[in-house]
Design goal:
GO terms for molecular function: NADP binding; phosphogluconate dehydrogenase (decarboxylating) activity. Keywords: Gluconate utilization, NADP, Oxidoreductase, Pentose shunt. Pathway: Carbohydrate degradation; pentose phosphate pathway; D-ribulose 5-phosphate from D-glucose 6-phosphate (oxidative stage): step 3/3. With 478 residues, the protein is of the alpha/beta class. It has 3 domains: 167 residues, 3-Layer(aba) Sandwich (Rossmann fold), CATH 3.40.50; 252 residues, N-(1-d-carboxylethyl)-l-norvaline Dehydrogenase, domain 2 (Orthogonal Bundle); 38 residues, Up-down Bundle (Single alpha-helices involved in coiled-coils or other helix-helix interfaces), CATH 1.20.5. The protein has 21 helices and 11 strands. The strands form 3 sheets. It has a 7-stranded mixed sheet, with helices on both faces. The protein has a two-stranded antiparallel sheet with strand order 8-9. A hairpin with a 7-residue loop joins strand 10 and strand 11. The radius of gyration is 25 Å and the shape is globular. Bound molecules: 6-phosphogluconic acid. 6-phosphogluconic acid (6PG) binds next to helix 8 and helix 12.
């Protein structure tokens, strides 16, 4: 077996298969391997014309077919299966080889795996890949972490197969150890928020306009020609206009309204809780999926809870549509702002040095949240790399400010008419919270001191204080 492959891919389900084809189409000789050889054979039989594949049945042959230092991409289900494949590869690997995990791994697992492989003289790169099947084949957004030195040889290949926007690859080295998978996790959290916000906009239009799915699909189509232009808005327009072949009804009307998840949104929220970063948009989006799937609770709620909402009578339809568009844009900016805050906090805590502007840049193409406005985010971080709050950047402060009245109208009308808008509402609440001169947190501090002597600080002098609430109410230094 001559070691002629420049890269190897093991795990040939749809993502791995398409990634392998993408490498081959870019002129790389690709070693391919899968637990069941039939998949490897079918890849070569069906897509051999894509380029030069080197199929192997055994792990030993697969590894031996790759030139050193080897670059091996693992594309299997995140969790146990990834560990199993790594353990299978290890005995065949040699010092300096690079193992790349392209699955949606939880970043603490990536950190653990990198340590384990580093002890063996091997490099481990946790690599976020976004764009689904289509992206994997035609150009995904790629978020590799791991040792920087491995990016020197791996980076050019990954940049080659990634999506390009204005000729710029949607791939860059994110940072050491778990940084790549961390950023992919937050990408997915933002994806959840974006999807929830779009779903709420759809629901508002449906109730407010009493319109059918196809009409709303047309509205999304128009929105996609403006500031909101993005992959998710585009597919929403398409999905809403799709008709179910079996019933002739709008497709969205025959789909069960229980949203599922594989866990990346949940991880994002769990991590934000640990970091103490308010990512309310992502959290509400994740909880909204949970609520949708809470079948017994929804049954009980439907049976017992009144709405006491009137009939929604929108008089100026065009103005209402524009209000919803502005509210969607503002809420979306909040969700991204919060996600970027989380990246900054984790990066500071772990010493990853993540460049947020570069993350917005590599999300402009290939990935699920690709959108026109990501350019604006990159520009904001170019203006100020340490920007503490994305929505406070002059560009975003201005556009959110201009839509503020609309945003308030939409959220209040939704509440008056009993339409749930957890992500719209919480984003507006966050906006009002983060810009508030003074928050009622002062009262919470006083309450905490009252019942638990938890102490407080004062606005007028330094130090920490406690009041003797159950005694003479004198204050003393704590
Ligand atoms: C992507 C997607 C992709 C996938 C997730 C989300 O960036 O290509 O985020 O990773 O769609 O698995 O799926 P869930 O909604 O099932 O969590």
């Amino acid at each position: 077996m001559s070691a002629r492959a420049q890269i190897g891919v093991t795990g040939l389900a749809v993502m791995g298969r398409n990634l392998a084809r993408n490498f081959a189409r870019h002129g790389y000789t690709v070693a391919v391997h899968n637990r069941s050889y039939a998949k490897t054979e079918s890849l070569v039989a069906d897509h051999g014309t894509d380029g030069d594949f080197v199929p192997s049945e055994s792990t030993a042959d697969f590894v031996a077919s790759i030139a050193r230092p080897r670059k091996i991409v693992i594309m299997v289900k995140a969790g146990g299966p990834t560990d199993a494949v790594i353990d299978e590869l290890i005995p065949h690997l040699e010092e300096g080889d690079v193992v790349i995990d392209g699955g949606n791994a939880h970043f603490p697992d990536t950190i653990r795996r990198e340590r384990k492989l580093a002890d063996l003289g091997l490099h481990f790169v946790g690599m976020g890949v976004s764009g689904g099947e289509e992206g994997a084949l035609n150009g995904p957004s790629i978020m590799p972490g791991g040792p920087k030195e491995s990016y020197a040889t791996l980076g050019p290949i990954l940049e080659d197969i990634s999506a390009k926007v204005d000729g710029v690859p949607c791939c860059t080295w994110v940072g050491p150890d778990g940084a790549g998978h961390f950023v992919k996790m937050v990408h997915n959290g933002i994806e959840y928020a974006d999807m929830q916000l779009i779903a709420e906009a759809y629901d508002l239009l449906r109730h407010g306009l009493d319109a059918d799915a196809a009409e709303i699909g047309k509205i999304f189509e128009e929105w996609n020609a403006g500031d909101l232009e993005s992959f998710l808005i585009e597919i929403t327009a398409d999905v809403l206009q799709h008709v179910d072949a079996e019933t002739g009804k709008a497709f969205v009307d025959v789909v069960l309204d229980q949203a599922e998840q594989k866990g990346t949104g949940r991880w994002t929220v769990q991590n934000a809780l640990d970091l103490g970063v308010p990512i309310t948009g992502i959290a509400e989006a994740t909880f909204a999926r949970a609520l949708s799937g809470s079948v017994p609770q929804r049954e009980a709620g439907r049976a017992a809870l009144a709405s006491d909402a009137g009939t929604w009578d929108v008089t100026d339809r065009d103005a209402f549509v524009e209000d919803v568009r502005l509210a969607l844009y503002a809420s979306k900016v909040v969700a991204y702002s919060q996600g970027f805050d989380q990246i900054a906090a984790a990066s500071a805590e772990s010493g990853w040095g993540i460049d947020r502007g570069a993350m917005a840049r590599i999300w402009r193409g290939g990935c699920i949240i690709r959108a026109k406005f990501l350019n604006r985010i990159t520009e904001a971080y170019e203006r100020d790399a340490d920007l503490p709050l994305l929505i406070a950047d002059p560009y975003f402060a201005d556009i959110v400010g201009k839509g503020l009245q609309a945003w308030r109208r939409v959220v209040s009308q939704a509440a008056l008419n009993g339409v749930p808008t957890p992500a719209f509402s919480s984003s507006l609440a966050y906006y009002d919270g983060v810009r508030a001169e003074r928050l009622p947190a002062a009262l919470i501090q006083a309450q905490r001191d009252f019942f638990g002597a938890h102490t407080y600080r004062r606005v007028d002098k330094d130090g920490t204080f406690h009041t003797e609430w159950s005694g003479d109410r004198t204050e003393h230094d704590a």
